[in-house]
Amino acid sequence: MTGKAAALGREPGLGGLAIGAVLSVLVLVWVGSDGYRQTLVTAAATYALVALGMYVPYLMAGSLSMAYGAYAGIGGYAVGLLSTKTSLPLVLAWLLGPAAAALVAVLLGLVTRRLSGFFLAAVTLLFGMAFTAFLVDAESVSGGSGGLGNLRELNILGWTPSHYQVVVGSVVVVCVIAFLLDRARLSAWGVIVRTMRDAPRAVEASGVRVPVMNLVALALGAAIAAIGGGLFTYSAGSVTPDTFTLNIVFLAIFMPLIGGGGTPWGAVAGAAIAVELTLNFPAIETSGTLVLALGVLVILLIAPRGVIGYADQLRRRGWALSRRGRDG
Amino acid sequence: MTELQLWLSALEMGCFFGMLALAYYLVLVGAGFFNFAIGPYAMMGGLCTSWLVIEYDMGVWSAAAIAVGATVVLAALTELLVVRPVQRRSGGGELPALVAVAAVLFAIQQFAGYVFGHPTLPGQSLATFDPVTIGPATLQPSALLLVVVTAVAFVAIALWIRYTRTGRLLRAVGDSTHAAGLLGLPVNRVRLVAFLIAGVLAAVTGLLFAPKAGVNSLSGLSWSVSGFLAVVVGGTGSVWAPLVGGLLLGAVEVFVPYYFGGQSHVYGLLLVALLFFAFRPQGLFVRMVRA
Questions:
Q1: Is this structure's pTM higher than 0.90?
Q2: Domain membership flag for residue B291
Q3: N or C end of chain B, less CB within 10 A?
């Protein structure tokens, strides 16, 4: 679809951005001053950022790393530490956190550079568990299992955003990152990374260093997840070792599948659906996650391109029908 | 805590990991992939038994039988409804199968949490005799049972793979699925058998191990990781390799926290994993193939 759009002379990625922006505005209008809905949207934005972070190495480069709970945690603890232990401007946390997460991702990527598939998934999972254990153990730094609370409010040159403004800000960040990733996907770099997934030898043979590109993808993904972790921590006002659990990692693997792996917006759509099912589904409250898990299995089996892929297919069929109607 | 007591504890953990690893090994040989749902199968075996006994006052043996049966059904469904269609569609790519099995793992966890509840339930012991005293140490009946069952299971599987028709078929399929298919061997049936036996092994292991620390719906994930590591450490060169890997890992799991305290066993496991992946990714035992 996007390829055709580019051929028509339109800027690639703008279509997705337009739809995403319109839906975001609708969601923000629906939220209004309702505190519960604000929490829901914040959670959705966090999920979306973690899922977008995973999108780069996983759906583009084809390596499934499960350390994303740790990366989001690093972002969250950056906000917590900067807020409680220093008097630096809090905005810096969104620079330092993602940078630290990217660094950790590169180090972990170097150690595991020979691994792929099941082996990579298992080691990164173990790393996530070890990181949680470390947060509990390192009480003097991380506050132990109690975590860090009583965080400062953001103060940007004397302006303190209200809770609603933070929600709007998170949604804007999600849209911008999804748009940028969509553009990156279609850029020369994105083409290389995606080819690397399917034919690493061909890419290596044409002079691109696959391991380096893989590290770049991992670092980028970790940084994006850390931004999400920071946002969530700031909105919640505290962070503990249990804030970013393995549950989030699993949900983040499934979100792009639910939404559709063809575009980063699929991850955003998947995050919205996941939050709706797990947090805002009063009829079967306790089993929302079960419905989600079974839904993922069904989608994997019958609609491998996800909700957006399915909608796109319907749209194309509609086009074809209407065109036939005009011609006949 | 005497040295001997620690070694017995390590033996128990090792047998537990070794049994999980054996279940991994069978599916790996038969279907060529790591079934990460092994841990949740074991969780189902333990949790379902405890739940039936506690909620419905059922006898331990009948509860255990039902739990094992339910787990075997889950294992069969995993293969028939999820893994086989996904692998057929993706044409042997590893990532789709990995994601599918992650979804299965997550779904079983959520299902167990929904049906059996989220709190940790105490494990039910099948053995009712008194603890056995060995010098200064004691061996709990459930631990003794686990060790005995592990020994029996490994011997039985080794004999089965070596001497029975289905066992030889399993090796043939494991060596080359393609060639086995060309020869007209029942590849799909053999795969299913591998899944079923893995399900039985995992469920029995889970319910035998549950008395040690209880079991809850989220236990499965870390069990999956431990069993997988035992396979990685042991290698896939022989049926006994998973047991060796499991025993080594059991020693790490018991002795590292004893000397370094706290949650250091998680770091220990990560370190073992990284060391093996860096220096001996093929594991301790490798099969020599005559070319």
A1: no
A2: no
A3: C
